[in-house]
Amino acid sequence: MALQSPIIGQVRESGAMSGDDERKIKNVIYGVLEAGKNRNFSLLSKLYAGDDTFSKFDDTPPYSRQTVEEAIAQEEIAFASLSDYQYAIRELKIDLIGVVAIATFYLDYGGVLVNNYTFEGRTISISSRATYVLEKRASGWVVVHKHISRLPDDWKH
Q: Is residue 138 predicted with pLDDT exceeding 80?
């Protein structure tokens, strides 16, 4: 059964997903983005798998595969120079395969990038493709993989 929402996107099930699972998966996805917005990086250790199963590729340096510790540290660094962060998720699609959920969406985000040495800022606006792979564990849904890839500035969807 597929659920449609003009705001959120769609959920396609390859397995049985309860409305409760859908809500919890969305809460994790939005929780990750809100953790950055609110600079609550300790929350990421609860939303990301805290073991060797976690990996991340990002649309900002470093472009290498990151562990959970590296990912959290890099997100702290990235947000240290970004003020007025705003984001929007478009076309969220969640596929459930057993105890694994694959969430794909477009992520529009921006803010003011501040050079801490000159105290000058410039507005940035970026669109990226995002994939989060989540696993349902005894403690709840956690992100085991996160991949963000930036779209060209002239890309229109």
A: yes
